[in-house]
């Protein structure tokens, strides 16, 4: 149970590099078992969730090597189709193994997945979509048993463009007989990354990045080597840290097209942003201004995963901002901690009213989930005095040695026990 100790007030200055996206590498690792051979993934982040996924793959019989930034999965001996409860509970993304195992072994047995406590996170859309492919699914005593001996492509209309459901259906449909069409699919960049990875091993998928994805079933896949896209949420977190500290940061290996929803809001706060092919440079020399409003929406709307970090920035902005969370039903818990630091925030259901204060004050706070925890670190960097952020393990799920990265650009932050 580590903690971060932050002495606020230092201006962040310099360059930070972003690694591969957590939300890409996790479904891609699950996808690697579809191929009865070897997959090499470049640019992988060293995160707690990635190690948890590797542990599950090894349990299923894969041989996994993590060397430098490369993960090599040898999936020739994946025979097991059952994931024990303790491994399923380590993270929400374990659910991707459902589609992947059905594709590989025609069956899967697992319990409901764990994950961040940011609201009710059902998997009904995953199950509904998989059933449309002819997969038999039985749910009993917290376990889900799937059998897909006669999988057939079909048309699937998602009631909501769920990221996970879109990816799980894609995984299951790769080797189904015939054509699968997913309508009202999620359009997140990580979905396009999964499509590109699967196609690199011989799948026939098109349309990812739009709301209609077409998967033509194939019989066999082959070995592949693939580079994961950069993590837009980590990049966005660094950019928010630059704004709150009135700093100047160049975030390298960040794709501006993936971050436009955040960049347009940060421009409204008054900071200057320059972009190149693979970098974003931000400079802020005065107090940020409040923005019109922030509403989280499926991509390309404002990402829910950057909502808490943006609220930290807005809590010291000049003026009032209304932030509406439409994706998850309990994603404002971290605001209670920001209030301990002097923020003026009122939350009513899915809406938060943030009246910017001149400055935040250091305090002892608790990270209750991954992105809420990142928001508290950002707040601590901009606050006067010392902030202790407890339960660092939530933050480690999505940020690789965040204290080292922020320290390298001038942040006074250390990990303590
Ligand atoms: C993914 C991301 C997560 C991000 C989220 C929204 C990964 C590993 N995680 O999570 O970081 O915050 O997208 O951008 O990629 N829902 C249902 N039934 C379902 C599935 C989802 O009701 O079967 C609801 C969820 O409760 C939630 C909303 O749909 O309210 C969005 O969930 P979804 O897009 O599925 O998010 P995840 O894939 O879990």
TrEMBL record:
The keyword Electron transport does not apply. One of its GO terms (cellular component) is cytoplasm. Belongs to the EPSP synthase family. MurA subfamily. Phosphoenolpyruvate binds at residues 22-23. The modification 2-(S-cysteinyl)pyruvic acid O-phosphothioketal is found at residue 116. Pathway: Cell wall biogenesis; peptidoglycan biosynthesis. NCBIfam families: murA, PRK09369.1. Coiled coil: none annotated. It is found in: Cytoplasm. Cell wall formation. Adds enolpyruvyl to UDP-N-acetylglucosamine. GO terms for molecular function: UDP-N-acetylglucosamine 1-carboxyvinyltransferase activity. Residues 7-405 form the Enolpyruvate transferase domain. InterPro entries: Enolpyruvate_Tfrase_dom, Enolpyruvate_Tfrase_sf, MurA_subfamily, RNA3'P_cycl/enolpyr_Trfase_a/b, UDP_GlcNAc_COvinyl_MurA. PANTHER family: UDP-N-ACETYLGLUCOSAMINE 1-CARBOXYVINYLTRANSFERASE. Keywords: Cell cycle, Cell division, Cell shape, Cell wall biogenesis/degradation, Cytoplasm, Peptidoglycan synthesis, Pyruvate, Transferase. UDP-N-acetyl-alpha-D-glucosamine binds at residues 92, 121-125, 305, 327. This is UDP-N-acetylglucosamine 1-carboxyvinyltransferase. The active site is at 116 (proton donor). Signal peptide: none annotated. It comes from the Bacteria. It comes from Thermoanaerobacter italicus (strain DSM 9252 / Ab9). The gene is murA. Pfam families: EPSP_synthase. GO terms for biological process: cell division; cell wall organization; peptidoglycan biosynthetic process; regulation of cell shape; UDP-N-acetylgalactosamine biosynthetic process. It catalyses: phosphoenolpyruvate + UDP-N-acetyl-alpha-D-glucosamine = UDP-N-acetyl-3-O-(1-carboxyvinyl)-alpha-D-glucosamine + phosphate. Its EC number is 2.5.1.7.
